[in-house]
């Protein structure tokens, strides 16, 4: 399935020098985000209609490797309205169903999932949001009135309405018939053609209430969109420390880093080097170094979230990145325990610290190993039990170092991790 | 797709008390092996025609949970010939394509893969083996003469022949027409119906040359079949020590254990307990204990192959078994290193053994971890590089303990495993 993106309009309410589709938004331009979202959902080809400052947009997109085939159509009459722009794509798309998107609407890529499925009655369909309170700028939104599940009117100034048009459409070639008719009558907006389809009873609705989407039209909506994007970076698998502490800080770091050239793998390596440094501090054994090392460990733990956040924001997550990150994490975990054990030993000598350190290392490792094996064998994640993901383990280490209780730290890690591994091994059986 | 198994004949040349389909063969009866092979290849339902000592076979199969739906047909006229037995299944299978198998033929389950695919011309097809030298008892085999890819004659006593009938058929309902005709003419063998199809140009051939199959008719063929089954237990991923040493011994142990009630998981646990014992020996630190521990480690390494071998022989391999085995292996690896370090330390004290032990443990763990992560992320195995699978690592430990060189053993393990992990992390990038 192909997509049609309307990126010809002006968007005069944003205070910026770029044309609206090129609005920078956390490391990518708005239109790049739309294109990468399409790619993520399996769309391999898109047609982009440009108008206002057309060549800038085309040039910018051409120099960027998007991994999706782009065809550009220039519409010199863009000022008339977006219906005219959509009609320009007729020669390319008139024989197929396609997705129609606005070049200034940001959305959660998952919103496209129910859309790409063909409907039985061969009607064009509009994505609607029924949660009017969640619509960012309701006054400016295109409203839809619905009766018994059927759309009966559309427009910005409806008095009675039940939902809002999200600016995404599943189109059948019929849309071009409607556009041809309305444009020839001097009605140049896409909404005019949609209204025509409604009157002919040829429009379906698809309810995507609950999914995020926003029409980026003002500075305020741009700011809100950025915040929502950053909020979406948390993962459902995040542990408690990650959720309550790390993510809150890492998002701010990510917001800065994503605008730079730093790659996610570079961030993984920096977080690892911080752990190397803190392990050296730990190995010195005196309390002031333990304190510094503990703080560094927690900071590295926070930074450890940024690599994935940047990758997801830029749509460049890779299997290799996840692989590298997890290998570095295991070495980091080991170095911390070795550093702590060595630092304790040079001041206190004796067997105990090595024995406890060994069992802490074994527990931490087998815990991570069961996660990986479980995933490899059963192709799903084990998520119940004691929450001992890395955020929690590093937090235990940081606190233990700061309060200078190495043996107790090792004991806690050993008991919790090994107990949890045994629990998993027993319960997985059933 | 359903299967039809002919298990009505007598098989008088085997010196045993059981009817032929109940011949014990490494923990399962011959007909159970056939049924589990079908199940492994996705067949969910089979029709079994019995005759000679019918009730014994039915009773035996009914008391066993095969996980495949079985329907039994008793053929009182079984002594006439197997064509009569096959014809008995007509009321059940006359409207569908099905697999036809002999209840006394053992085969590599993979032989069924090209069979289950329907052919275009709607002909019945016979599986053939063109490698006449590999046929176990060529004299007794059913031969097929082929001209220009088309079968032209079939029979035990053909003078000119190009291949041998493996006793497995992809049947269309046409087979019942052929059987009805030949049986009514007093020709009671399945081969008669196949010959009829050949004369009518309604038989296809499917070449499965290279796949193992055998008609179990004599004590000699039974013995050969057992040997081939045991040989098939080696895995393509086996390391050098496994291939050259462990498998050669583990097969003999498995051959004994598979006839008992011992489960694969019990074997995993016994192998683990042997490692616990050897770690206790190692922890005592004196050479005589190291020697004993080293030998025990190598024996446990051999036994570690038996759990999977028994599981595969009995068709009871499970995700949980693989999970449990790998978790126990990681704890075993850890205990060995801890035992060796402790045993060395009580006699020599000092930091060095703990430091080296730590890095050996880290290397061994991260090595196993990269395997699991690689599999989870890329859904394939990393198999290049230094061969450091568990067979090799335990061999290094066993030799190191026997020659009483703990520090060198740790050093070798640390350097090799960590080097290999780094190599993988770098090369996986490309």
Automatic annotation (TrEMBL), chains A, B:
Enzyme Commission number: 2.7.7.74, 2.7.8.34
Membrane-crossing ranges are 262-281, 351-372, 393-416
Any idea which GO molecular function terms this record carries?
Answer: nucleotidyltransferase activity; phosphotransferase activity, for other substituted phosphate groups
Q: Which Pfam families match?
A: CDP-OH_P_transf, NTP_transf_3
Q: Which family is it part of?
A: In the C-terminal section; belongs to the CDP-alcohol phosphatidyltransferase class-I family.
- In the record, what lineage is assigned to the organism producing the protein? Archaea, Methanobacteriati, Methanobacteriota, Stenosarchaea group, Methanomicrobia
What protein is this chain from? Answer: Bifunctional IPC transferase and DIPP synthase
Q: Which PROSITE patterns match?
A: CDP_ALCOHOL_P_TRANSF
Q: In this protein, which residues make up the domain named MobA-like NTP transferase?
A: 3-126
Q: Which GO terms describe its cellular component?
A: membrane
């Amino acid at each position: 399935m192909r997509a049609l993106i309307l990126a010809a309009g002006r968007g005069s309410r944003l205070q910026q020098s770029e044309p609206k589709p090129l609005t920078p938004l956390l490391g990518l331009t708005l239109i790049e985000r739309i294109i990468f979202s399409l790619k993520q959902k399996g769309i391999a080809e898109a047609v982009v209609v440009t108008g206002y400052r057309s060549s800038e947009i085309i040039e910018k997109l051409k120099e960027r490797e998007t991994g999706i085939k782009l065809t550009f159509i220039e519409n010199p009459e863009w000022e008339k309205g977006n219906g005219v722009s959509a009609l320009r794509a007729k020669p390319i798309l008139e024989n197929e169903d396609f997705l129609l998107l606005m070049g200034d609407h940001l959305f959660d890529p998952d919103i496209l999932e129910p859309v790409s499925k063909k409907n039985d009655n061969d009607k064009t369909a509009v994505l609607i949001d029924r949660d009017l309170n969640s619509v960012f700028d309701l006054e400016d939104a295109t409203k839809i009135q619905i009766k018994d599940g059927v759309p009966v009117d559309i427009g910005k100034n409806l008095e009675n309405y039940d939902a809002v048009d999200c600016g995404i459409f599943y189109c059948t070639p019929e849309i071009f018939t409607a556009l041809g008719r309305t444009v020839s009558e001097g009605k140049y907006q896409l909404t005019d053609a949609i209204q025509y389809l409604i009157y002919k009873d040829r429009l379906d609705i698809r309810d995507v209430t609950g999914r995020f989407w926003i029409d980026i039209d003002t500075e305020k909506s741009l700011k809100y969109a950025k915040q929502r994007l950053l909020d979406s970076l948390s993962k459902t698998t995040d542990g408690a420390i990650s959720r309550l502490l790390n993510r809150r800080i890492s998002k701010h770091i990510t917001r800065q880093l994503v605008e730079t050239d730093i790659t996610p793998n570079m961030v993984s390596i920096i977080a690892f080097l911080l752990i190397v440094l803190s392990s050296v501090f730990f190995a010195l054994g005196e309390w002031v170094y333990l304190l510094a090392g503990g703080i560094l460990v927690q900071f590295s733990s926070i930074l450890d979230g940024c690599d994935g956040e940047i990758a997801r924001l830029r749509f460049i997550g890779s299997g290799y990145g996840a692989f590298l990150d997890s290998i570095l994490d295991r070495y980091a975990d080991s170095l911390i325990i070795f550093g702590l054990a060595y630092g304790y030993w040079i001041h206190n000598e004796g067997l105990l610290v090595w024995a406890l350190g060994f069992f802490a290392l074994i527990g931490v490792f087998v815990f991570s190993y069961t996660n990986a094996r479980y995933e490899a064998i059963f192709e799903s994640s084990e998520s119940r039990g004691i929450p001992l993901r890395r955020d929690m383990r590093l937090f235990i280490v940081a606190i233990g170092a700061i309060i200078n209780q190495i043996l107790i730290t090792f004991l806690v890690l050993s008991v919790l991790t090994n107990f949890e591994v045994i629990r998993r091994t027993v319960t997985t059986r059933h």
